[in-house]
Design goal:
Layout: E1 2-10, H1 14-25, E2 34-38, E3 54-57, H2 59-67, E4 79-81, E5 84-89, E6 99-103, E7 114-117, H3 118-132, E8 135-138, E9 141-146, E10 151-155, E11 160-168, H4 175-179, E12 184-200, E13 207-213, E14 216-222, E15 228-235, H5 236-244, H6 247-257, E16 265-267, E17 272-281, E18 285-286, E19 289-291, E20 297-298, H7 306-324, H8 333-361, H9 366-380, H10 383-394, H11 402-405
Parallel strand pairs: 1-2, 1-11, 2-8, 5-13, 11-19
Antiparallel strand pairs: 3-7, 4-7, 5-6, 9-10, 10-11, 12-15, 12-16, 12-17, 13-14, 14-15, 17-20, 18-19
Helix pairs in contact: 1-3, 1-7, 7-8
Bound molecules: flavin-adenine dinucleotide (FAD).
Length: 410
């Protein structure tokens, strides 16, 4: 028997499940008219320890998560509002020459955003979708066909699903994007992000630290228990050398790379690696199809914005469908093109900007080094430019859905 829905979301990552919860919370869809399809759903809530996947979320993402009932569920032990950010170039010093610092007090905010445990976030997004009444179907997508009346999907367990709209939120390799023959542009960075939680000799002071090295950026994100989570992007050969080191040798390499900003570090978890790429789907919309999150765009993690952009995709799609009014119009290409134009015009400049930042900072060219020094110095002396950058990073500026720009959530 075929099951029918208004919106079938493929992918139960944070983007797919937040979309399901938001569609129902904003009454764009009735509960049982939304399906979330994934090959496997997370089986447990936040663990005793933090997940190795940690996300820096903007204020806009916090508001979106509040609007779909997720933010309030995230335990305070698994999120932290960070108050300061300090970025500096390899030749400079944190807080001094060749550096740029932001403080939430300068823009009258309680913090600059939140560091959130990935496992807890995924679990509570899924729970919000489930409790809102979305139908969660555990089976991988195998085939898709779009016809005039519906998009029809066949799942790995033989089930058939029909929907007015397929929302593809199935990640960077997006099987639904591939099955639909939608191509992508971009390139691999030939680099890996190394991720681990570390103890540090000195307190992190609720500050996100980032040092730009010729081999790639190193970020130390503060965790509520005093540890920091590192995201160290390095080209592949260096990544292989670092992975081969024992714990003590890795810590010394990390201390050198971090310029000892938090004193000596000590590994507290295994090391995880993620291959980095820049990717953009050629189209975000087709008749009866919309692409969101990493299925639509993958960016360099140096600004910690990939998921934030994905949440803004959710907000834009919900806003566009809300305005379309009737479920019968959800698959209409004229409606979906509005979503595509909106989000491409925000995501593409962001991706190009992060890529340019990586090229500007991840090299040893003396001319570029001088340019970086002048640029950082200039911005750090212009309070209005710093304020603009900090507010932009909060994600509430620019073309974002109205329910995100409203007053801060309780
Ligand atoms: C090192 C690193 C650090 C990062 N840090 C940050 C950060 O600080 N802040 C930030 O905003 N972003 C960050 N990002 C980016 C962020 O990780 C991604 O943008 C985000 O995880 C994408 O979420 P998603 O829901 O679109 O996709 P995913 O989380 O990849 O979810 C895709 C889902 O689709 C499912 N799926 C796949 N195939 C099928 C199929 N055939 N059928 C059904 N389901 C399927 C998968 O099981 C999965 O559940 C970082 C990325 C990296 C690599």
């Amino acid at each position: 028997m075929r099951q029918e829905f208004d919106v079938a979301i493929v992918g139960a990552g944070p983007v797919g499940t937040a979309l399901a919860a938001l569609l129902i919370a904003r009454r764009v869809c009735a509960p049982a008219r939304v399906a979330v399809i994934d090959a496997s759903f997370p089986a447990s809530a936040e663990g005793a320890d933090w997940d190795l996947r940690v996300f820096a979320l903007s204020r806009a993402s916090e508001r979106l998560l509040a609007a779909c009932g997720v933010w309030g569920r995230l335990p305070v032990t698994h999120r932290l509002g960070y108050e300061r950010m300090c970025v500096w170039d390899a030749g400079g010093t944190p807080g001094g020459r060749g550096s740029l610092s932001f403080d939430c007090a300068d823009i009258g905010e309680p913090n600059l955003g939140s560091i959130v445990d990935g496992r807890a976030l995924k679990w509570h997004c899924l729970q919000a979708a489930r409790q809102a009444g979305a139908v969660c179907i555990e089976a991988g997508l195998r085939d898709v066909a779009v016809d005039e009346g519906a998009v029809r999907m066949r799942l790995a367990d033989g089930r058939e699903i029909a929907a007015r709209l397929l929302a593809a939120a199935d990640g960077a390799r997006s099987p639904s994007r591939q099955l639909l023959g939608i191509g992508t542009r971009g390139h691999a960075y030939g680099a890996d992000a190394l991720v681990m939680h570390v103890h540090t000799e000195r307190p992190h002071r609720n500050t996100a630290w980032q040092r730009f090295l010729p081999s790639g950026p190193l970020a130390l994100l503060p965790l509520p228990d005093g540890r920091s989570s590192i995201v160290w992007s390095v080209h592949r050969e260096k990544a292989e050398r670092l992975r081969a080191l024992d714990a003590a040798a890795f810590s010394s390499a990390l201390d050198e790379a971090s310029d000892g900003v938090l004193g000596a570090t000590r590994a507290d978890t295994p090391l995880a690696s993620f291959a980095l790429q820049l990717q953009s789907a050629n189209v975000y919309a087709r008749e009866r199809v919309a692409l969101l999150g990493d299925a639509a765009h993958v960016v360099h993690p140096l600004a910690g914005q990939g998921l934030n952009l994905g949440f803004l995709d959710c907000a834009a799609l919900v806003d566009v469908l809300e305005q379309a009014g009737q479920a019968a119009a959800f698959g209409d290409l004229r409606v979906l093109r509005r979503y595509e134009r909106w989000r491409k015009s925000e995501n593409q400049p962001a991706a190009v900007g992060f890529d340019a930042l990586d090229r500007l900072f991840s090299n040893d060219d003396p001319v570029l080094r001088a340019l970086r020094g002048v640029g950082l110095q200039a911005v750090s002396r212009l309070p209005f430019a710093k304020r603009w950058l900090a507010q932009r990073a909060l994600g509430c500026r620019g073309d974002v859905a109205p329910f995100i720009t409203g007053p801060a959530e309780p």
